[in-house]
């Protein structure tokens, strides 16, 4: 499994970068076009590197000062139909699927802490869907709300901040998560109050027995177990850039459904459900962050050692 490096290199660093790329047998398809880059000015390099070796190659490029004076971008190589690709993979320690590019993980985590309008909109819509799921006692809508919810982004960023010793990152992620839940719950609570005032929502719709969705506000030991497993799986998907696996994480945890239930419980004022929903939400977030952080720390300790340069 290869990733493609595209480098814009100032002329005075070109010789150092040439030596770095050519001396590493985990890199192939090295190309150089002198004076091809216009902004910033420099030479344009291309190279394919084994994914499991990409982090150590980036570390060595960092030491040349290139990130501050030129450009580095990475893209996944979808198909490699040449023999040298297999040889490069064999020379790199570990398996391609296990390779983690920590600089990309950190930057993605930073991006996940941005308070975008889309984030608040998706979380609000997901919470509203969860509230409808509670009213109709529909497990299908519960799953739909889980999938729409964007809240694993900041949860994963919290894990990254803790594992990579960047407390500021974790705090920004936590602040976004709190603001998002507060805004979503407040908006859905207002809508529920309007629905109650107009006769669309009856308190009995929330308080009646709900065989399919009653678990949302009744956390138990399995809530902790599922949250921990989801946190570990989510971090593995995040560091391995496997977005399809994240869908399974979204539909495993009860964060967004708990927020939807909380909004309805506030609107019809059911203190027991308010407390239960808050507890469910907290258990899921804490469980995911704890397990995700442990998973990421273990990855960092084990894989970074395996990714040490083979030819230095």
UniProtKB/TrEMBL annotation:
Glycoprotein found in the keyword field:
no
Instruction: Enumerate the transmembrane spans.
Output: 116-135, 141-164, 176-201, 221-239, 246-269, 281-303
- Provide this UniProt record's keywords sorted from A to Z: Membrane, Transmembrane, Transmembrane helix
- Highest taxon in the source lineage: Bacteria
Recorded hits in InterPro entries, A to Z, give: DUF389 (IPR005240)
Name the UniProt record assigns to this protein = DUF389 domain-containing protein
């Amino acid at each position: 499994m290869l990733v493609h490096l595209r480098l814009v290199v100032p002329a005075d660093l070109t010789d150092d970068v040439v030596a770095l790329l050519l001396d590493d047998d985990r890199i192939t398809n090295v190309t150089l076009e002198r004076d091809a880059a216009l902004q910033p000015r420099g030479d344009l390099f291309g190279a394919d590197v084994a994914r499991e070796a990409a982090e150590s190659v980036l570390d060595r490029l960092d030491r040349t000062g290139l990130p501050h004076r030129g450009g580095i971008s990475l893209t996944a190589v979808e198909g490699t139909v040449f023999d040298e690709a297999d040889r490069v993979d064999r020379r790199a320690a570990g398996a391609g699927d296990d390779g983690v590019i920590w600089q990309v993980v950190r930057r993605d985590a930073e991006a996940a802490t941005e308070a975008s309008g889309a984030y608040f909109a998706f979380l609000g819509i997901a919470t509203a869907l969860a509230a409808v799921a509670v009213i109709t006692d529909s497990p299908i809508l519960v799953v739909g709300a889980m999938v729409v919810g964007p809240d694993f982004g900041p949860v994963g960023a919290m894990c990254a901040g803790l594992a990579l010793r960047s407390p500021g990152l974790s705090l920004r992620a936590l602040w976004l998560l709190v603001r998002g839940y507060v805004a979503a719950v407040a908006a859905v609570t207002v809508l529920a109050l309007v629905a109650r005032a107009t006769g669309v929502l009856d308190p009995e719709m929330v308080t009646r027995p709900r065989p399919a969705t009653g678990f949302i506000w009744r956390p138990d030991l399995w809530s902790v177990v599922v949250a921990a497993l989801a946190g570990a799986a989510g971090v593995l998907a995040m560091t391995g850039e496997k977005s399809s696996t994240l869908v399974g994480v979204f539909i495993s945890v009860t964060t967004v459904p708990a927020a939807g239930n909380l909004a309805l419980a506030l609107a019809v004022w059911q203190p027991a459900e308010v407390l239960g929903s808050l507890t469910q939400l907290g258990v899921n977030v804490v469980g995911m962050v704890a397990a995700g952080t442990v998973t990421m720390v273990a990855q960092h300790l084990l894989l970074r050692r395996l990714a040490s340069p083979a030819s230095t």
